[in-house]
## 1
Amino acid sequence: MTGGNATRPALFLDRDGTLMEEVDHCRDPKDVRAIAGAASELARARALGWASIIVTNQSGIGRGYFTEEQFHAVQRELIRQLDGLIDASYMAPDHPDNPSPRRKPAPGMILEAAAEHDLDLSRSWMIGDKALDIEAGKNAGVRTILVETGYGRKVTGCAPDHRVPTVVEAIRLVLDG
């Protein structure tokens, strides 16, 4: 939903390399390290009425590197480290060679979340560390921020609305204008 019927804006957040340190195809909760300071900024966003939604491609499932249960174990650990401040999570397990309408850069997960949680896309942002994240945000009609954690330092050829060092600065930019 967008426009007058939707009630609140959202931070759509990539997971690996954005909310947590990049671990190639993370399959073990012991390897999860939330980005320092992210939980406090997510708490501030929640206090201001923002939803925080994870949208993550997990091709490791489609490639057979790990199971959906391993994904959920990693996800639970990240959410624990973020003090439970994630309102919902959406995951696309597709192999890149066989993408679905949900796999970024397609906007499916963002549009699904907006409909299910009554979110105002016109006031929302996508934050991620890859060109796919920025493209997904643009395809969904939200503003975008590229973070330089994870793969973000090396990303060229996409045009985010902003580029910042970490998700902490990204959330601050959104909340503080």
## 2
Amino acid sequence: FSIFFERIRGASAGGVPAGLHGSALISLRVLPSGDTLSTSTETKVIASTDLQFEVTVKNSGDNQEVRIPVTLTIQKEGSPIVKTQTIDVIDPAETKTVTFGEIDTTGVFGVSTNVKVEVKKVPGETRLSNNSATYPVIFSLA
């Protein structure tokens, strides 16, 4: 009961609890290889039927956050590949991973492209510079 009371008492008039709010994109890994992508160096990504991208997000604030959309976009000619998943609940200082699978890489082989990850702003968040990143990649069959 006291935890519930503290959360209500800490809320501001706008319904957002007082204190720092935020989520931070920590990393993007390619599975099954386990390679961590870089924002400054192009990475060769082996495309296969079991290709997945694993996004790690950290709650960088003082409050529990809920329903945070995480979007992965692979740029390609025509229309980009866009996938979104939601982190249901994340506590302060906790990290969570979201895995994106069933990636159709048709149309992106052998050309430099970008994979962008965006963690949607949470209510009350003011620092957004760590919510997204773009990773240069080249998809290959081997």
## 3
Amino acid sequence: MDVRKDEFEKLARENKDTIYTVCYMFSKDRDEVADLYQETLINLWKGMPQMKRDGNVRGWVYRVALNTCISMGRKKKSRPTVRLTMDVDPFEPSDERTTQVGMLHRRISKLQPFDRAIVLLWLENISYDEIGKMLGISTANVSVRLVRIREQLKKCLTINLFRRL
């Protein structure tokens, strides 16, 4: 069996949750998440030689997934799409916790792609220093951006509360 194929299968298996989490943060529906996931796997396969030079496998997987999702998002905006709708959503959340997670996802999805990436990495409990290295910004810049993102999310929450009144 091909050594490269074995390495890739191991890489994909060990990082499937990370890849899925990144894809989920950049999409609103399951089909699109599946497309992003598949495209990320293709880009990981193509970039395997680069990974060996990088050394930080986890960081490399995050960067590939983030860049794939951001690129696919840009391509999607440039193409018109037609959404098919159903009167019933069989995947509609029914419990309060799932509803809250959905609300958080919707708020985060309104952020700019780079800010979404920072929040995603922060939610994964990655240190500011490591986030900075992955995204090519300073640790201080990560800290400042997170403060601004939190304020933006709070503002979004406040606006939504007033709309309900």
## 4
Amino acid sequence: MSRLKPVTIVLALVLAMPAFALEPINKEPYINATLLQGFIADKIADNCPTLSPRNLRALNELEKLKNYALKKGYSAAEIRAFVTSKAEKARGKADAAEWLKEAGAVEGDGESFCKIGRDEIARGTLAGRLLKDKS
């Protein structure tokens, strides 16, 4: 029976540390902040008749976010489960609705959503970059 050398054990532990250090994907700040921006843009596009989504840009952003998550150590299965979860989608939509409400959006008042959307476009935020002005 062969014995593992101490350096081999230490190396194995060091290489495994990122996997142990991962927080749940639904708590990872960058991933959640990025997704929130997408949910905000979606809600604006759904409620403002003069702003529409930039679908190709959104798909590109999702691919970049997936690559970020993979590099952090999340598995493809974890990522897929997270983005297809009805509960997580509902949480994201609720967070976006709350953010928009705090920003001045009023349900049934499309112009309030349009104003926020135009402001986000002017500021160059991710939500703004995911929208285009049709007017």
